[in-house]
Amino acid sequence: MPRYPQRIVCLTEETTETLYLLGAGDRVVGVSGYTVRPPEAREKPRVSAFIHARFDKIAALQPDLVLAFSDLQADIAAELIRRGCNVVAFNQRSVDEIFQMIRMVGGLVGLADRADALADRLEGHLDRIRASAARFPRRPRVYFEEWDDPLISGIRWVDELIEIAGGDTVFPERRAAALAKDRIVSPDEVRAAAPDAILASWCGKKVNKSRIANRDGWATIPAVDRGHIYEIKSTYILQPGPASLSEGVRQVHALLGRVVGVTPDESLQPEERLDG
Prior knowledge:
Strand order of the largest sheet: 3-2-1-4-5
CATH architecture of the largest domain: 3-Layer(aba) Sandwich
Radius of gyration: 19 Å
Helix content: 25-40%
C-alpha cells in the first residue's frame, strides 16, 4: 500500500487547486462540477455539485481519500464514510485557516515541504498587497454582497482580504458568522453605512449591477452615485483557497485603487480583466 493517498476526489475547488500547485494534480481523480482552477482540472470526472454528489460515480473512481468542505457537505461526507471512504472535511473561514488548510493538505499527501513553500509564497504576496495598500490616500469603506435576496454580507476571509487590499468593511461585526443566514443585512443598513465601493459576488450567479444601483434609496450611496459597483467572480473570492489569496485579493486591490485614484504596481495587477 502506498504511504500516502494516490487517488483523491475533491468536492470543492480549493483543495483541487492546492493539489495541483503542490505538483500532485495527477492524483486527483474526481472534482466538483464548479471547478474552474486550474483549467486542466476541468478534464477530470465531475462527481459533485456543492451540496449534492454522485456517490456511485465516486465509488467507481476507487478513491483512497475524499476532501470535503464545511457543514454544507456534512451529509455527503457522512454517506461517503458509511460507504467506506476516507474523508477529510475542512472548515476554513479565515485567511489564517486557509493557510492551515494548505499545509494540512500537503501533510495528507506527503508533500509538507512543498505546502510550506506554497503558503510562504502566498503570505509574501499578501504582504506586498498590504504594502501597496499603505500608499492609498484613504481607506474606502466597502460593502461586500455575497447574495442579493436576501442581502448577505461578506464571510470572514473575504472581509479580511478586503482589509489587506486597502479597504474597511462596513459590517465587520458580522464576518465571524459561519452561516449565511447570520450575515443577512437590510437595504436600510447598507444605505446608512454609506459605502464608497460595492463589491458583489453572488455565489456563482451573474451580478446585476443595475439592479443594485436601482434599489430604493440607494442612489445617494457614494458607491452608487460615483459608479463604484463591481463584480468579482466567485471562483476568485468565495473559494477559500489559493485563488482568493492570489487573483482574488489582486482584483480587490486594483478595484479599490480605482476608488481612491491609485494604480497598483504592474507586479500586483490581476491576471484577468477587471469588471467595468
